[in-house]
Design goal:
It is a single chain. This protein is of the alpha/beta class. It folds into four domains: 219 residues, Spore Coat Polysaccharide Biosynthesis Protein SpsA, Chain A (Alpha-Beta Complex); 106 residues, no CATH class; 164 residues, Rossmann fold; 178 residues, 3-Layer(aba) Sandwich (Rossmann fold). The protein contains 27 helices and 21 strands. The strands form three sheets. Strands 1, 2, 3, 4, 5, 6, 7 and 8 form an eight-stranded mixed β-sheet that branches. Strands 11-10-9-12-13-14-15 form a seven-stranded parallel β-sheet, sandwiched between helices. Helix 8 runs parallel beside helix 10 and helix 20 packs across helix 22. The longest helix is centred in the middle third of the chain and has 17 residues. About 3% of the residues have low confidence. GO terms for molecular function: CDP-glycerol glycerophosphotransferase activity. It is found in: Cell membrane. Keywords: Cell membrane, Membrane, Teichoic acid biosynthesis, Transferase. InterPro entries: Glycerophosphate_synth (IPR007554), Glyco_trans_2-like (IPR001173), Nucleotide-diphossugar_trans (IPR029044), TagF_C (IPR043148), TagF_N (IPR043149), Teichoic_Acid_Biosynth (IPR051612).
Length: 726
């Protein structure tokens, strides 16, 4: 009777790790002959061959193949597969190892599957990342698998999010005859397994997930391709060709062609973007290969993804390497400044070009850190705003010896700064010097990853809103919401943070998980909300006049959030119809999300209607809060800030189910709203006309999300960060 499971172990140059791997291949609950081990000595230059022979002499399940020439990892796997007789086969890498009991757990699943009329073609297992210092990280994609249809068995088409998880071969136990029938083979060189794993998943009639860590994957070891600079990273393109050759001949998988194409482009760009992988002299060629991949394999009728990722893909498809580099370097959505027209302030030298920029920055890094210099930025260098602005103002009062300077993207943005606020323009010599020498860095997003963190510097991340929607690492299993996100890069930038400012206990709880790191959370409240907590009636009147609300009008602020699934500003309210129902005693202030250029569009209303004003470009959102008698939003974090004022809030959420599915949320807004909650425009209008229909809901909401808003948040932050003078 053939074995139930064949474990194929390719071995080359891993003498240090091999004993641990071999010792982990125990199966105490296996019946005699149920498991076979096939070790392939791929012409290993060290003592691996002798270690394998010694182990095989003591383990009757194991036999060793000594190859006459080195075939690479893919070739060694193929050699082992040719000798395998098991119903299922598992390719285990010999520098990794299995947790105790893993083979027994897998066998239990396989026994049950072979008794089925339609057994699983592939069994996927959970796994753990293990780092050189002994640190362990659970499978970061587990939530894509656990609780999904894969637990009971499904096809890839029934759970396409599977392709956002790891696509390596080592956590996949496959039915041997199914694998052989696919007529695919492991590639040569780097990324050799994806030419097998993609077809393996795409064509399977039944995929199954075992929610148990059955594999320890060793991260960060010397020689690992994820940390090695090599021309061989371009081997990926041959594997992509093999994947699409399979798609061309097997129509079972054709429905997922676009998803596969997006996934391969994302991988190629990730390799290109990761510092140190593609050698500098080969980067133009590698980028050209990505452009060629678009030309060769882009599906018919292909539509670019929305958001930043779509812009990246367009630039890659066109071969626009320089524009792509500027987008990555700037860390912001393009479009605010047209390429080639970046302005500079009078008396400021021109922007430094890419190569000279890094030379200059590295030269400035040789200077001592300036203990009394703080760099501030907000919203991708758009100007003076949000928590950084409130911290800057309070620092001038409490720590005046610390000189603050703002980073802005061009002279137009610099012109919006309050009088007397010092600034530097991105990529000018003054900017490079400030970024290289400052002691303190305060931002509500991240500074460019190309700027390193020097020893002794202090990075303060304020973020810019209380999260209803999932954030950071919580988006791993939300592919549309995570559009364009690089989770490895996210871990890298979070590693720079020394402090993370939190507005409330809810945020502290969720950000600690969404942004894993060693920073300190400052449970202070949001500095930007101090103005709201301390606002006087006179200041509110001034704000109304500043934004154009006439005396005697009741003002509504309508502020919908960004929706990844819709790709741009799309008001779900019929604003002219709302204005007509409200009548002439009302003013509706319309504020689009800052991701969207162009404002709110045509706001023409019928005679006798409420006044519609587009305030998307108003530089200070707190002015709008003070001016408005009521806020209408959907899922925007603005509701948490506005609640500080203790004024009515209405939630208009006609697409709540879709939003939850795409973005993921931290609590049920329908069950715990800040006020009236509606899914129909008529109901929203009635709630607005009613005045304040849900004061008790607002009270509960404020207790939960505004406990620290006493007007002293900026003072608490500054006192923790800067040397405050007594």
């Amino acid at each position: 009777m053939p074995p139930l499971l064949s474990i194929v172990l390719p071995v080359h140059g891993v003498e240090r790790f091999l004993p641990q791997c071999l010792d982990s291949l125990r199966a105490d609950g296996a019946a005699p002959g149920e498991v076979e081990l096939i070790a392939v000595d791929d012409r290993s230059p060290d003592n691996c061959g002798a270690l394998l022979d010694a182990h095989a002499a003591a383990d009757p399940r194991m036999r060793v193949l000594h190859l006459a020439e080195n075939r690479g990892l893919g070739g060694a796997r193929a050699a082992g597969l040719a000798e395998a007789a098991g119903t299922y086969v598992w390719f285990v890498d010999s520098d990794d190892w299995l947790p105790e009991g893993s083979i027994d757990a897998v066998l239990g699943e396989l026994r049950a599957e072979t008794a089925r009329e339609v057994p699983a073609d592939v069994l996927l297992t959970d796994f753990t990342h293990v780092y050189p210092d002994g640190g362990r990280e659970p499978n970061p994609w587990r939530r894509v698998l656990a609780g999904s249809p894969l637990v009971s068995g499904c096809t890839a088409a029934e759970h396409p999010a599977l392709f956002n998880a790891v696509l390596a071969v080592w956590n996949k136990v496959m039915r041997r005859q199914y694998l052989l029938g696919l007529d695919v083979e492991f590639g040569r060189g780097y990324y050799e397994d994806i030419s097998v794993t993609y077809p393996l998943l795409l064509a399977a009639d039944r995929l199954l997930y075992l929610d148990r860590p059955c594999y320890n994957y060793r991260r960060g070891r010397p020689g690992a391709i994820t940390a090695t600079s090599s021309a061989k990273h371009a081997d990926a393109f041959a594997q992509y060709d093999a994947i699409f050759a399979f798609l061309d001949r097997d129509d079972r998988a054709d429905a997922l062609r676009t998803l596969v194409f997006d996934r391969t482009v994302k991988q190629a760009l990730t390799v290109y973007d990761t510092p140190g992988l593609v050698p500098a002299g080969l980067r133009p060629e590698f980028f050209a290969r990505i452009t060629g991949h678009f030309a060769k394999h882009r599906p018919a009728g292909y539509r670019y993804p929305p958001g930043v990722r779509g812009v990246q893909y367009r630039l890659a498809a066109r071969g626009s390497r320089r524009a792509y580099a500027e987008l990555r370097r700037g860390g912001r959505l393009p479009g605010a400044v047209k390429r080639g027209t970046r302005a500079v302030a009078p008396g400021v030298k021109k922007v430094v070009r890419s190569g000279a920029r890094f030379t200059a920055y590295n030269a400035f890094k040789r200077l001592p850190v300036d203990e009394n210099l703080a760099v501030y930025a907000a919203y991708w260098h758009r100007g003076y705003a949000c928590n950084p602005a409130a911290i800057y103002a309070k620092a001038r009062e409490l720590a005046p010896q610390v000189h603050g300077v703002w980073v802005v993207e061009n002279a137009e943005r610099a012109a919006t700064l309050p009088a007397g606020v010092p600034y530097v323009i991105v990529n000018t010599p003054a900017y490079l010097k400030a970024m290289a020498t400052a002691k303190y860095f305060v931002n509500n997003v991240n500074f460019p990853h190309t700027m390193t963190k020097r020893t002794g510097t202090v990075h303060v991340q304020t973020q810019h809103g209380t999260p209803l929607k999932a954030m950071g690492m919580d988006l791993v299993d939300r592919p549309l919401a995570a559009d364009g996100m690089d989770f490895e890069r996210l871990r890298e930038v979070v590693g720079r943070w020394d402090y993370l400012v939190s507005p409330n206990p809810h945020t502290s709880k969720h950000f600690a998980r969404a942004f894993p790191g060693t920073y300190q959370i400052l449970d202070t409240g949001y500095p930007r909300n101090d103005r709201l907590a301390l606002a006087t009636p006179e200041q509110c009147v001034d704000a109304r006049r500043a934004v154009g609300v006439a005396d005697g009008q009741r003002a509504v602020l309508y502020a919908p959030t960004h929706r990844e699934s819709r790709g741009g500003y799309l008001p779900l309210l019929d604003l002219p119809a709302l204005a007509e129902r409200l009548g002439p005693g009302w003013t509706v202030l319309v504020r689009t999300h800052y991701f969207h250029e162009g404002g709110a569009g045509d706001l023409t209303a019928a005679p006798g209607s409420a006044t519609l004003l587009d305030v998307s470009d108003h530089p200070v959102v707190e002015d709008l809060y003070l001016a408005a008698d009521v806020l209408v939003t959907d899922y925007s974090s603005m509701m948490f800030d506005y609640a500080v004022l203790d004024r009515p809030i209405a939630v208009y959420a006609p697409d709540w189910e879709e939003y939850q599915e795409v973005r993921g949320v931290y609590f049920d807004l329908m069950e715990e709203p800040p006020g009236a909650v509606t899914t129909e425009q008529d109901a929203l209008t009635e709630a607005l006309l009613a005045g304040d229909p849900e004061p008790e809901a607002r009270r509960r909401f404020r207790e939960r999300f505004c406990p620290w808003d006493d007007g002293r948040a900026a003072e608490r932050v500054v006192s923790r960060i800067f040397p405050v003078r007594a």
